[in-house]
Amino acid sequence: MRVLTAAQMREVDRLTTERYKIPGLILMESAAARTVEAIERRLGPVADKFVKVYCGKGNNGGDGAAIARQLWTRGAVVDVLLLGRVEETAGDARANFEIARALAEPGAGLGFRELLSGDELWDDSIDPADVYVDAIFGTGLARPAEGLFAEAIAVLNDVNGAPVVSVDVPSGLASDSPAPIGPHVRAALTVTFTAPKPANVLPPACFAGGALEVGLVGSPDDLLAEACAAGDAGRLALVTPEVVAAFLAATRRRGDAHKGDAGRVLVVAGSRGKTGAAAMAGLAALRAGAGLVIVATPESAEAALAARCTPEVMTHALSETSEGTLSLDARDELRRLAAWADVVAIGPGLGQTEETAEAVLTLAREREEPFVIDADGLNCLAPWPDELKATPELPVIITPHPAEMARLLGSTTEEVAADRVAAARELATRAGVVTVLKGSRTVVAGGDGSVYINPTGNAGMATGGTGDVLTGVAAALACNAPDPALAAIAAVYVHGLAGDLAAGERGMRALVATDVAAYLGRAFIEAGGAGERP
After folding, report:
1. pTM (whole model) above 0.70
2. Of 39, 153, 292, 319, which shows the fewest CB atoms inside 10 Å?
3. Is there a single domain that holds both residue 136 and residue 263?
4. What are phi and psi of 312, to 5 degrees?
């Protein structure tokens, strides 16, 4: 699902009216209908509920006035609170304000007031509502809210647990920014129109919006493609369940499949004293559908690894350095093992000695199979070598967290965190690698500059080992996958979904990485539907 910037959204609205002759008032009416439908879907019937609608003076406020009228026609008692005067508004917004004012009569169940001071706001807040609608600012805000508008935001954040529904984006957020720019509404539900905006889907701004629904208001799909055609901003999308389900269907096992058909994964991981990461990656690869998995590790770690691994995982001992990490002498043996595999995953718990780093770089340069690189595999390559590039025939998926990404780019963790989309896109396009930048709302960037935002996962997954599980899942799904970017997208989505399912039963506080691996089967069934069952 495309994610639109404020400028792209304005262009879509303009073309909808100019090319297809759909008036702005009809678009507002449709936006209001989608919002009311979402409110009833999430919060139940509105009949006999008391709803307060806080409106700014722009088009977002006009949407709010239309929402208020539609709530009223469904039996709600509604107060429209305009932050300013009707005479200060214009265009379609003014038309909706004038309609609401004309309909408002004592005892009619629809009230309309112009609030001009903070005192009036706080005096009104003494009369609590069942539901609040935030229609103060939309996608046009680019500076911190001030004055009366900032006070209205404070009122909406002090409603003692009553749900607040934001229209398009929570007021006070800049539509295009993942970071809040000032005081902003904290909503229980946000209904955005036509497509999500960056602030709806990127953290931390997205956490201010609560549940997100996208309402289609009537703009033709071809206009979205046209508005997104130019520049990197047009290549941002939210991963949807439908995309993941289609990938899983396309890579489903045939009825006559044997274990070799299901995919062979070689995991090169672990070192003396660090076998847990290797064991989790191997287990996850099996749980994600690989038919055969070998975990190759330095020889002094092999016995401990074998003891920790699930019995279905095969282990293999490799030449090691005096520190118990991967030795360059293991190169020929690894080439032989890699020739057996469909995908090689390298990195978890591998260590970062000088010789290990040389071994990883040599393997990556001389690879003849698709690679998934994570953890110490990435640290051994940092900063990313300019000559190391992926190709469609030999794809590479990398799965860094922000600190690893900073090392790969020669940047800082703070710079990466400030614009995760740009960071992932930079390395993906420079080296042709599929870049999975892990974290809250993990982003996946392809070599063509497209970036996908993953909606699954939770804070309970901020625990050691969950990245190693993702490595195994990504490697398994990359086996025989027609598109490595889609394999990475599906891996991230299912991995996060497994974490959500685990947290739902075990809680976020107690969640550990092996819980995520344990719930992969249920996650695949939920993501892939009947095709994941016998």
Report:
1. yes
2. 319
3. no
4. -75, -15
